[in-house]
Design goal:
Elements: H1 3-17, H2 24-40, H3 45-59, H4 62-65, H5 70-86, E1 101-106, H6 113-126, E2 132-136, H7 144-155, E3 158-159, H8 168-182, E4 186-190, H9 199-212, E5 216-222, H10 227-240, E6 244-248, H11 257-266, E7 270-274, E8 282-284, H12 287-294, H13 300-310, H14 313-324, H15 330-342, H16 345-350, H17 360-365, H18 370-381, H19 385-389, H20 396-406, H21 410-432, H22 434-440
Parallel strand pairs: 1-4, 1-5, 2-3, 2-4, 5-6, 6-7
Antiparallel strand pairs: 7-8
Helix pairs in contact: 1-2, 1-5, 2-3, 3-5, 5-12, 6-7, 8-9, 10-11, 15-18, 18-20, 20-21, 21-22
Length: 502
């Protein structure tokens, strides 16, 4: 999400930050480029006009023109403007009410409403330890109620039994009664949608809202619909009283116009982002972090949070124990690659690391993408158990057999083995010194040696980016149970001082 906008803005800021001083003409020229970038990102025109007006007012102030680094100050002003447009502070779901708390899901048909209902229910159950009941009020779409039932079985959340012939208000009453009798904390009502907004849809939702008195009325909107989603959100806000918005399919939206426009146009906060099809592909919406991503500043906090949620702690502790002995076999590497895929793959992780955006072309040329992860996992899967535990026995004939089994070339097997050897050597090096090892388990130790990158493995931080010349690499993050899985292969041509602590 926001890839195109990030690229455009990065070009504008590179021109501004490279100047020793800025004139008002320089600022106006830069803001014209920003305006074009926002238009191409499909941001609503009224929102663009208001945004640029506020940014220009601050940018032409004396404190900016006399600043030592005026270009960097402009970047900060644009960042603050984006935060203001997106909603300033993050707003989570409001559940502080007498149970059962009712969450009503609304939106057009095809926006991902039913799947999002299950995603939120799974999050409330697993993360917040809430007892949840889901009920489908969609009696129009074929198999809509069965779909929610199947999703409920997959995530271990109870769904209201289906009774044919009941109207949506009748189903809502039955759900509230069942929740009260069984001590449910949260009731999720998945209402029916339409292919377009009509009076019958609004009347039905208004009747259910009056009956159920929901604490949260969440509009599920498809980010790929762009300004159509913004128009839908505005109508639902005016007619139904939406308390929050969930944007879906943002993983397929390279522009991000809907996200940037939604809060400004509707006044309703974006609360959650659907980042994929899997049931755990749901993120909290943090305006400041999103603004940082747009401006290429990364989002390490979200990366650490995602790691904490997805990494298998028990497995991480076992690998940590092996690492203390300087051991690191191909089974360990396979586990890291699996964890990386759970966290959104190579692109998902790279997008959250500061400064990586500028290196996107280099990374693409070096083959750093999710296909690389799949290829490496296929190679490891083609090995025997003994070969994974003792990589040193992989002679030429074994490597040819493994390459044939994985459907790749022997050169790819050789690359994987070289990368593993570099990482294993680093593990041994870190196991010898207490100070260096402190950087692995907790992130408070001294900087890693040049090119090592984020130390660790599953036991505490991104394992080395081996092969990176010069520069101290990225400092250990620490604080995330299990750490962050590896970025195998090494980033090419990391600039000196990349990621240095300040």
């Amino acid at each position: 999400m926001f890839e195109a906008l990030t690229d455009k803005l990065q070009g504008v800021f590179d021109g501004l930050t490279g100047r020793g001083a800025l004139t008002e003409a320089d600022i106006d020229k830069g803001l014209r480029e920003v305006r074009l970038a926002l238009i191409e990102a499909d941001v609503a025109l009224p929102a663009i006009k208001d945004f640029l007006s506020k940014v220009r007012e601050k940018a032409i102030g004396a404190e900016v023109l006399r600043s030592v680094t005026p270009g960097q100050m402009i970047v900060k002003i644009v960042h603050d403007g984006l935060v203001d447009m997106l909603g300033a502070e993050a707003e989570g779901l409001h559940l502080e009410a007498t149970p059962p708390v009712v969450i009503m899901m609304v939106g057009l048909q095809g926006s991902g409403k039913t799947t999002t209902t299950a995603k939120i229910a799974a999050r409330l159950k697993n993360r917040d330890k809430k007892k949840v009941l889901m009920a489908s009020l969609d009696t129009r779409r074929p198999a809509a109620q069965e779909q929610l039932k199947v999703l409920g079985e997959q995530i271990g959340v109870t769904t209201l039994p289906i009774i044919a012939g009941q109207t949506p208000p009748d189903i809502a009453r039955r759900a509230l009664q069942a929740a009260s009798l069984s001590g449910v904390d949260v009731v999720m009502l998945d209402t029916a949608g339409r292919l377009h907004i009509d009076e019958a849809l609004m009347a039905e939702i208004a009747e259910i809202r009056t009956l159920a008195q929901p604490v949260e009325t969440l509009l599920v909107a498809d980010s790929l619909a762009g300004q159509d989603s913004v128009g839908v959100a505005k109508t639902f806000k005016e007619r139904v009283g939406v308390t929050g918005i969930v944007l879906t399919r943002i993983d397929g939206d390279g522009r991000g116009g809907a996200a940037l426009s939604m809060r400004w146009v509707t006044g309703a906060p974006i609360k959650l982002l659907g980042t994929g099809e899997k049931i755990d592909a749901l993120e909290d919406f943090h305006p400041r972090r999103i603004a940082g991503r747009i401006l290429g500043q990364g989002d390490v906090v979200s990366l650490v949070e995602k790691a904490a949620e997805t990494i298998d702690q028990e497995k991480a502790e076992k690998i940590a124990a092996k690492m203390k002995k300087g051991e690191f076999d191909l089974d360990d590497l396979s586990d890291q690659l699996t964890q990386m895929r759970r966290m959104g793959g190579m692109q998902g992780i790279m997008g959250m690391l500061p400064g990586i955006g500028k290196m996107k072309d280099q990374l693409a040329q070096a083959g750093f993408d999710d296909r690389m992860i799949k290829r490496q996992m296929a190679i490891i899967s083609s090995m025997t158990k003994q070969e994974r535990r003792r990589p040193d026995i992989l002679n030429g004939s074994r490597r040819r057999r493994i390459a044939a089994g994985a459907g790749t070339e022997v050169s790819e097997v050789n690359k994987l083995m070289k990368m593993h050897r570099q990482m294993a050597d680093m593990m041994k090096q870190m196991s010898k010194g207490k100070g260096l090892f402190g950087s692995l388990f907790g992130g408070k130790g001294p900087q890693m040696p040049p090119g090592a990158g984020l130390p660790g493995g599953l036991a505490g931080g991104l394992p080395g980016l081996p092969g990176a010349p010069k520069g101290p690499g990225l400092p250990g993050l620490g604080g995330a149970p299990g750490g962050l899985p590896g970025l195998p292969g090494g980033l090419p041509q990391l600039p000196p001082g990349f990621g240095r602590k300040r």
